[in-house]
Amino acid sequence: MFKKIILILILFSALANGATISGTAFKWYSLEPLDNVIIEINTTPKQIIVSENGDYSFDVSAGNYILKAQYFENNKLVYETEEEIIVENDGVFIVDLLLFPSLIDDESLLDDFNDSILSPEEIAEETDNTANDNNIIAGMVLIVVALILIFYGARKITTSVTGLKTERIGIEEKYFERPKEFLKKETDLAKDELDKDTKEVLEILKRYGGRMTQKDLREKVTFGEAKTSLVVAELENSGKIKKFKKGRGNIIILK
């Protein structure tokens, strides 16, 4: 009898000094709970449950753990996620899980994640591309500044001449129209080029099933890394794509 009491006290003490990790597994795009999700945690022994409504709960002791969740359809892995959890003290820890599309069947995407760390040659190439783009932008700015200076210089000279009001107005109009036309032409050209680039990115995404990594996209477009980032940001702002961080890369999904 005394031994049974001691055993009960030990078990009660172990339970009292533990922690609980619980939460809900959600779909990445609708934020709705997922049914029949397999959730596991690498305790000793490992704990695995199949949650019918997305909710889960595990009793653990202090330590570092990996919490995994997987969702299957027709025996095929569709969504998954993985979270690292550090438990330092007792209590109840709420950890909700957001499951993203699985990339296991997409070998090209997996290879891209493995190659996401750039080599020194790739870094140098990207630096050169960025420098070239910066040089183009700087040249355009200098042209605009030069035209503005010419305009004000001509205006100052003609203002100092008396008795030539008609000529002065003609000079002002001449140099006033040229910067406006130049800026409008450059703006229209930049807009047309951006529209052309966004169409190219959308066509590539459609061709590859509406989902690919940004690095893979960069290798297939006809322009450089800096412009690829600009076009992706424009499409994301306009609501035509979604971009998610995964590992060291980005996944781009066509809406």
TrEMBL record:
Protein name: DUF7343 domain-containing protein
Protein keywords: Membrane, Transmembrane, Transmembrane helix
Domain DUF7343: 196-254
Transmembrane regions listed in the UniProt entry: 136-154
